[in-house]
Amino acid sequence: MGLIVQKYGGSSVADVEKIRTVARRVIDTKAAGNDIVAIVSAMGKTTDNLIALAKQVVDNPPDREMDMLLATGEQQSIALLAMAIQSMGHGAVSFTGPQVGILTDGSFSRSRIKAVKEDRIRAELDKGNAVIVAGFQGASIDGQITTLGRGGSDTTAVAVAAALGAEMCDIFTDVDGVYTADPRVVPDARRLKAIAYEEMVELASLGAKVLHSRAVVLAWKYQTPLRVRSTFKQDEGTLVVNDTQALDMERFVVSGVAVDKNQAKISLIGVPDKPGVAATIFGILGKAGIVIDMIIQNVSRDGRSDISFTVPRTDLHKTMAASAEICQETGTEEALSDENIAKVSIVGIGMQSHSGVASQMFEALANQNINIQMISTTEIKVSCVIELDRADDAARALHHQYGLSGNS
């Protein structure tokens, strides 16, 4: 057969019985004639608990020590999974990210993978062992332990799969695939048999939590076959591929609806309307490590304009600190923030060849009396910023508008 990389999220290894279930799945995969590498996240809410523990010690924990702390969560789960596999009479060995040579750029809390040294993994596979690797973590060239940010285990799995030339990278989670919307919000959401890399990148970045966007980008770059499956079912899940046309002859114009409630809007009021000011503003934000999403600049009045932009709500505090610097540097009158927003989006490759898709979105929102504050478009997505308390209503209205309900 071939080499399979499997990733198991925190919900898949949340307790001892679930760890045993994962162990049996790893054993079954190996028994089918495959070499297997399993990438594992921390158990359940372990990471959240460690963060809370750190904040009991200090209000603003230093990033380096936080990475040292958070990396221990995965170390627990990989050791327990290896023990479970061994107790069932099969060979397994666990490694941390640094032990198997996952090299990162050295940035704490949001590190990026630079390389994966495959020698140690291959040596254990040659011995007939299942290799269990901690996700979410690696080490810089100078030996600093770093973490990849939330969802980083997905990225670890794809990076290892790409380095090893794996036949498949299976992302096992508590859902059985990628849906046209969050089934908890839209009960008649439809599971997709396949979705294009490009669509999945957009959905992941726009709030769909089933896959980490960095992982999909990496899979797309290295053409690594990627599949989302349930840990607790035998379903085939959703395949992420280059072109879904061959798998689904009746493509929907819109493939999915995503909602991101982790959003905040910053409005810079009375910005001097002259060359170079925008460069100064976004230069300061960039130096602060703040990722900007949507941007709108109003028409100039009396030599001044207003600029609004959105950021992750988790970055609001440091964005407002940077905005204070912006006001001082540029002569901007004031900076206002609004946490009571959400971003709702539609995504689909089919939008490239169909007109009127955006107007249907605006019509559906208008029919629900939902006001649009900001709009952003690309060839395959349209996003609108709306009031936070109308986000779920918007998702259901858009799902119905584009006829996404039904069976996969």
Structure explained in plain terms:
Helix 1 (16-31) crosses helix 3, helix 2 runs antiparallel to helix 3 and helix 10 packs across helix 11 (391-401). The longest helix has 25 residues, at 63-87. By secondary structure, the chain is an alpha/beta fold. The mean pLDDT is 91. It starts with a strand and ends in a 7-residue tail after the last helix. The chain is globular. The chain has eleven helices and 18 strands.
Determine Rg (CA atoms, Å): 23 Å
* N-to-C span: 28 Å
Structural class: alpha/beta
Low-pLDDT regions: none
**Overall 3D geometry?**
globular
Major sheet strand order: 3-6-2-1-9-11-12-10
> Helical region count?
11
The portion of residues forming beta strands comes to 25-35%
Mean pLDDT: 91
Order of helices and strands: EHEHHEEEHEEEHEEHHEEEHEEHEHEEH
Main β sheet profile? 8 strands, mixed
Number of strands: 18
Q: How helix-rich are the residues, as a percent range?
A: 25-40%
What oligomeric assembly is this protein in?
Answer: single chain
Which secondary structure elements does this structure contain, and how are they paired or packed?
Layout: E1 3-8, H1 16-31, E2 35-40, H2 46-57, H3 63-87, E3 92-95, E4 102-104, E5 113-116, H4 119-126, E6 130-134, E7 137-139, E8 145-147, H5 152-164, E9 168-173, E10 194-196, H6 197-205, H7 213-222, E11 226-230, E12 238-241, E13 256-272, H8 277-287, E14 295-297, E15 304-312, H9 316-330, E16 334-347, H10 357-367, E17 374-377, E18 381-387, H11 391-401
Parallel strand pairs: 1-2, 1-9, 2-6, 3-6, 9-11, 10-12
Antiparallel strand pairs: 4-5, 7-8, 11-12, 13-15, 13-16, 14-15, 16-18, 17-18
Helix pairs in contact: 1-3, 2-3, 5-7, 6-7, 8-9, 10-11
